[in-house]
Fold this protein.
Amino acid sequence: MLRRCLNLMLLAACAWAAGMAIADTDRPTKFTNRDTIGNTRHNLTQRQASGGPAGATMDSFRNDYEEVCVYCHTPHGANRTVTAPLWNRTMKTNTYQTYDLLGTSTLTQPVTQPGVSSLTCLSCHDGTTAVDSIINMPGAGRYNAAQETQETTDFLNSWNNRRGPDANVHGRLANTECVSCHSPAGGFSGLGATDFTVFAIGTDLRNDHPVGIRFPAAGPGTDFKDPQRRDGRMAWFDGNGNARPDSNEIRLYNAGGGDGYEVECASCHDPHGVPSAGPGSQFNATFLRVSNTGSAVCQSCHSK
Ligand code: HEC
Ligand code: HEC
Ligand code: HEC
Ligand code: HEC
Ligand code: HEC
């Protein structure tokens, strides 16, 4: 624990935690997963209208922009280096270890580096970029073009948390950072932090369902189902037949470059949360487009 404390340079909080009982079991999420992304773990302001995690613990580790969307989107000054919707996040150039490097004999389709509909997620989940590293902070004169591709600590430090202490550590979803509290081994779980170990997926994707992988020719006689609908950019399983890719429909992305329709993170997950257990239901806690009860996510694509 001492080493983790030193990594965080958080000696005051360490001393505080050291005096407390350390719980080594995970706790349930404090979010209700209902109605809006504001009630999910993708609300990084950590203050809900009713209840929810207290922000105080988090304030030293990430800027509290007080707006849910701004950690990912901005109406102006969005990232010009990626074709993601009004994207406000820093996008570093990383090389990922892709699933095909595992060398299973059964994989038939070409795999590329993750496409944009995975890179958006990986800009937090691979643990290389601070979760609060954005280009355009709320308020006037808080835009920094260099942030499109680099994380500038001075710029991030220029933000003042109104509702608590300022952040001088801008945490990443990585072991020595956010996960140093958010893990059973991470000393601070005695403060009530939930376990994020499996969600910090890193840049090694060999143990994850392949992304950046082409969807094979489907239909009768193959063991893939045919997405009924396609436009140039997307193919999707149009469950309700309305000819639109609804958020509760599994989809494939065609980012161009001749790679065709590919599986990406957002094929299976909607980062805003989907009430995928039916109308009025609780959001699926893991942001899945369809509930995976009975392996329904898998069977959207695989005929097995
Ligand atoms: C000093 C320890 C500490 C660090 C570092 C920390 N957290 Fe937390 N976090 C907590 C605690 C404690 C809670 C629970 C707060 C409560 O009980 O009200 C929490 C709650 C959360 C929650 C809500 C979890 C849920 O489902 O209820 C999220 C999401 C979260 N933190 C994200 C982060 C991110 C992202 C980082 C890195 C930028 C981070 N945390 C760094 C201690 C920490
Ligand atoms: C944790 C990051 C994150 C947050 C927070 C977030 N979004 Fe998104 N949003 C995304 C990603 C990623 C996409 C692209 C999904 C894809 O590749 O299809 C997206 C896409 C969108 C789109 C395009 C259409 C669609 O639904 O996919 C809209 C509109 C949108 N977001 C609005 C919002 C609004 C409004 C908020 C705040 C209430 C918000 N988002 C918060 C990550 C986020
Ligand atoms: C702004 C940073 C950020 C972006 C961008 C982001 N996430 Fe997250 N995500 C988090 C944090 C923080 C958590 C809460 C800590 C955790 O569970 O790892 C989280 C949690 C999750 C969880 C676990 C929820 C649960 O309770 O089981 C899933 C699944 C997830 N994200 C998927 C995605 C996908 C898919 C995308 C892209 C479409 C994405 N995220 C984009 C920061 C982000
Ligand atoms: C083929 C569908 C599919 C793709 C593609 C996919 N996921 Fe998931 N993901 C799932 C399912 C299903 C679960 C739920 C697993 C469970 O509940 O045990 C999940 C769970 C998660 C979790 C929660 C932690 C866990 O292991 O339960 C995170 C975080 C996550 N996914 C992020 C991502 C990111 C980031 C990507 C892209 C690199 C991605 N996912 C691509 C289907 C997918
Ligand atoms: C969006 C469509 C899609 C979804 C949803 C999906 N898969 Fe896949 N899956 C693929 C594609 C495409 C391949 C690559 C097939 C190939 O190379 O022949 C694949 C490959 C696989 C493989 C073979 C890997 C190998 O080494 O040969 C397994 C196993 C697998 N998926 C399991 C799952 C499971 C389990 C789920 C549900 C959690 C799931 N898939 C959901 C599209 C999907």
